[in-house]
């Protein structure tokens, strides 16, 4: 009797153990890679940010000096301002543009698939290549693609990248062009889940296009927008290659962003401690922003 | 079996180095550090030297020829890595305390490397043929502590490249002064020198971005010619010198005439251009370029040898000194292969090594030989190189080699780029601010007097 009672116990426990271990086994390679390539470097980065880094002479503990130096450097302060303008502008612009593209390109037609693929190309093209392409497009004479277009209208040429008043906006335009198709794909997935009968009912009620967007489409794609916003919050502040290739942070530092400044600190000035401190600060702000966006998203979902 | 072990060893080494590279660069630089230079199976082999040069694929082919000749002669193998983003990769490797055995890179970086302890001191007497290098060249490898930290390998000075066919078509003389240069630049921009009936040519090419300090590098020759020094030696230290009357006069002249003057004197987008994307001269739409002689072979291929001329830089109010720089051979700290490294250095500075590096079908990696028994023009059979050699020997000035020059160059570039961008800016106030910043840089290095 006892045996019949006790036998399933260990078997169930074994099964449970197996069940519990199996997912971890599948996860192990990914976790190991993340540990080696992500979390250990991250930890080392935080550690280095408290030192004057001199691998061959011995690192010197400087406490919060690197942080103080970074935060009180007026070039860094300017760069933080540019990062916020560029990050927010690029993120919102790319969400709006991605949403519009998704509305335009939603559907099953074969031609739409081809157009969607073409529109998606900027996402899979190397940022450095895109940057070089846009440098040519922005060429500040009538030979440049955009300026030759303006020339037809009797305007320009405009020195987009060489004028400190326009360089940041020109960089933002390129960023939106690159990011919008990515958002488009996520929003398209959201749109696919919208109940068509709601549109039909709305059409019968004779509602306007704007009302249909506001009361049916936008609420329905709220989860997709949440994902897009979270990704934008992470990506917006990390902008680097676009700026580095297009303007190198110039002219006169007018497009210098957090990452280009940190890169200059690390590799033009060989100040790895300062660059690490700048990177840690960026990580903290990104985390804060991501958590905030998620909080509001979840609160919105509950409501 | 040995191959397999070597393969495993190589993989482990790569993983270790990559992890360390990622570690030093933290969140920011991790992914960028996975490129070339991360791994060699033979780094532990005493008869193999790992050698890095900052080279593009074109000049790397010349280096490969030089190293092949060295291996044939001495039996010492070379594990050669041409590295484009040299300093980024070097910082990553420094964090693993496993530097390349030998590095060939810019002279102006020596102070920076020494300040970080990346270099092994060099006793000139230990390098066979050291007496064939001039005292002037050897003096440029002395560090802050009076010891040598590099072996001169190649030298160069900037010269002015001018479209000869355009100049002759417009009937204008070779420029001898800043004013001549300006007049010629304006003529190139406005008098349709290519005869296509369109206003699509520019006077002068300028890599004027602050990125990696480019505008300070290009602008140094103009500063020297205006009698300006960025920092000046004083006793055992230095003092910043960008608040001088000469600096005010020179920077104002550059701003008013080149950057904020007549449209077309310099190419569009100069303020965000680095040398890699400043191709207007070889593209055939700009008439002048004050730059290094390594471009001669590129321009020969793109434009044809007879279309342009190589001239000494025109003189400014204080003479026609130009920026001299070049490359040194550096020994990585703690590599433990001193004998082999010295043998390689001796070969690289020998007439044979220098000649190999100056000739061939690809871009030469020795421009002006440091070996005083050689004549650049004779070795190449090209008289244009004598203009460069003369400029280097008679009218050139290097960046000071002992301080960590990287922050000084970057701050100077940031400041000049800003002054040239804002045409209404107050040059005097801008230079005063730069001078204070430079004082801070020197103070950080305990060099401020």
TrEMBL record, chain A:
TM ranges are: 21-40, 79-105, 117-137, 167-194, 215-234, 272-296
Q: Which GO terms describe its biological process?
A: transmembrane transport
Q: Which UniProt keywords apply?
A: Cell membrane, Membrane, Sugar transport, Transmembrane, Transmembrane helix, Transport
Q: Where does this polypeptide localize?
A: Cell membrane
Where do the coiled-coil regions begin and end? Answer: none
The record's section on SUPFAM superfamilies has: MetI-like (SSF161098)
Protein's UniProt keywords contain Repressor: no
GO cellular component, as recorded: plasma membrane
ABC transmembrane type-1 domain boundaries: 80-293
Membrane topology per the entry is:
Multi-pass membrane protein
Q: Which family does it belong to?
A: Belongs to the binding-protein-dependent transport system permease family.
List the PANTHER family hit by this protein, alphabetically: ABC TRANSPORTER PERMEASE PROTEIN, INNER MEMBRANE ABC TRANSPORTER PERMEASE PROTEIN YCJO
State what protein this is by name.
Answer: Multiple sugar transport system permease protein
Supply the source organism for this entry.
Answer: Streptomyces caelestis
Kindly list the organism's lineage: Bacteria, Bacillati, Actinomycetota, Actinomycetes, Kitasatosporales
Automatic annotation (TrEMBL), chain B:
Q: Which InterPro entries match?
A: Bact_solute-bd_prot1
Q: Tell me the leader sequence span.
A: 1-32
Origin: domain of life = Bacteria
Swiss-Prot/TrEMBL keywords: Signal, Sugar transport, Transport
What is this protein's record name?
Multiple sugar transport system substrate-binding protein
